[in-house]
Design a protein that fits this description.
Elements lengths: L1 H6 L11 H10 L5 H15 L2 E4 L2 E4 L4 H4 L4 H5 L5 H15 L14 H9 L6 H12 L10 H11 L7 H8 L6 H13 L8
Antiparallel strand pairs: 1-2
Helix pairs in contact: 2-6, 2-8, 7-8
Length: 201
């Protein structure tokens, strides 16, 4: 990790403008590869987001809770999402619109455990989805999605010679990164995307 950090020094983990956006993206990415997830998110935003033009070029805003609250489930399926994910997204959007769910208030909470519990209390949100949301939407760098198969594979490549490891082993390894476990996981993801290979240097 020291080697990766040195190469990627100064790289900052991106944060979404709203917790809602991070949560919806994390739901879309549940149990699928990152490449497939990016393709679905691309379609999702262009189908439901507000379009505007700048110098004849199209840009899209992230879909708002108001917009998503009214979407029929079959419309979500047309983007490649499952009916269940469509239900989760629409239910969350409706709860936000009706004032039953305030995701942005989580930005005022400094207790990672309480944030995790709050997110996991939402229908369709498990620990992995909550932790991913915390990293992306709240910049909680001490959150660590140990259940992420791809992340475990990356940790295995760097620390265990490619041997398959359990979530608990990944968590144990990440403990050495302290309160920057989430940032370290982001660095590993970028390193893989950039083709940076494990080395003893």
């Amino acid at each position: 990790m020291t080697y990766v950090s040195r190469i990627l020094m100064g790289l900052k983990s991106p944060t979404t403008p709203t917790v809602f956006e991070a949560l919806i993206d994390s739901i879309i990415e549940q149990q699928i590869s990152l490449n497939v997830a990016r393709s679905l998110e691309y379609r999702f935003i262009r189908k439901f987001g507000l379009k505007f033009q700048v110098e004849k070029k199209d840009y899209y805003c992230y879909p708002t809770p108001d917009r998503l609250a009214e979407i029929p489930l079959e419309e979500f399926r047309s983007c490649g999402l499952t009916s269940r994910k469509g239900e989760y997204i629409r239910d969350i959007a409706r709860n936000v619109v009706h004032g039953e769910l305030d995701l942005e208030i989580l930005k005022k909470c400094s207790d990672t455990k309480k944030i995790l519990e709050s997110l996991c209390s939402i229908r369709g949100i498990g620990r992995w989805t909550a932790e991913l949301t915390m990293i992306r939407g709240l910049h909680c760098m001490d959150a660590f999605p140990a259940d992420d198969i791809a992340l475990r594979r990356m940790i295995s490549a760097w620390y265990f010679n490619g041997e398959k490891i359990s979530p608990s082993k990944a968590e144990e390894t990440a403990m050495q990164w302290g309160t920057y476990k989430g940032l370290a996981s982001f660095y590993l993801e970028v390193a893989e995307h950039c083709g940076i290979k494990p080395t003893l240097v």
